[in-house]
Write a structure and sequence with these properties.
This protein is of the alpha+beta class. The protein contains 5 helices and 8 strands, in the order αααααββββββββ. It has helices at 9-14, 16-21, 26-36, 40-62, 76-110, and strands at residues 126-131, 138-146, 149-157, 163-171, 176-184, 188-195, 202-209, 214-219. This is Zinc-finger domain-containing protein. The chain crosses the membrane at residues 96-114. InterPro entries: Anti_sigma_zinc_sf (IPR041916). Keywords: Membrane, Transcription, Transcription regulation, Transmembrane, Transmembrane helix.
Length: 223
């Protein structure tokens, strides 16, 4: 049989998929099988497509007759309403976030002392700030009431190092307790400690050098 008796070689190559899926008619299938025995290209095509044809056959057998091949169209009315509601909720959240951010910036610009300044999230924490023009030492003290006394966080700036310093809590009755001590190795230092005195019994905090010199006094209750 000549190649031109039926179709050209390229058209016969294209029939590899139809043959592998079994959709060729009897006459066309007979002619293609005759061509397939003499064409290495088509033999390779049919071998590659054979596994896909078997998968499709297994899928057809496993799919219940009631399964729809194409999804039904979804009414757009309900979808558009839900989308509009979601967008409105997002806009409200953005407005609230902007308002909160504005309040925070305003408070920072006015120097307001906010509860929970230590970052612990405890609304009972109080932040105190002080600076000594003579020594150049500045500090932020955060005092937080605890059942055992007062938890204290200190953020101090001191350019007079190297030296050893201590934070002392001075009670209203004149008693003293060392909250924390540190070595000044750089300008800014952060330390944490505690005192047995409750916040209400503390009159002031003092930053002192190792020789007892007072470098800074931060009165309790001052902003």
């Amino acid at each position: 049989m000549e190649e031109n008796d039926w179709t050209g070689p390229r058209e016969r190559h294209r029939d590899a998929g139809a043959y592998a899926l079994g959709v060729l008619g009897a006459a066309d299938r007979f002619r293609y099988e005759d061509h397939l025995g003499r064409c290495a290209v088509c033999a390779a095509y049919v071998a590659e497509l054979g596994s896909m044809a078997r998968l499709l056959e297994l899928y057809a057998r496993a799919t219940p007759p009631c399964v729809e091949l194409f999804p039904r169209p979804v009414p757009l009315g309900g979808v558009m309403e839900r989308l509009a509601a979601a967008r409105a909720g997002a806009r409200r959240r953005v407005r609230w976030a902007g308002a909160v951010a504005g309040l925070v910036l305003l408070a920072g610009g006015l120097g307001v002392v906010l509860p929970g300044g230590s970052g612990t999230g405890d609304p009972g924490a109080v932040t105190l700030r002080g600076r000594d023009a003579r020594t150049g030492v500045a500090a932020t003290v955060t005092a937080d009431a605890r059942a055992w006394g007062t938890a204290v966080d200190l953020d101090v700036r001191d350019g007079g190092g190297p030296r050893v310093c201590a934070l002392v809590a001075v009670g209203r009755d004149g008693s003293e307790e060392t909250v924390a001590s540190w070595a000044v190795r750089r300008e800014r230092t952060r330390v944490s400690g505690g005192a047995a005195l409750s916040p209400g019994r503390i009159a002031r905090f003092e930053v002192r050098a190792a020789d007892g010199a007072r470098l800074l006094t931060v009165p309790a209750g001052s902003g």
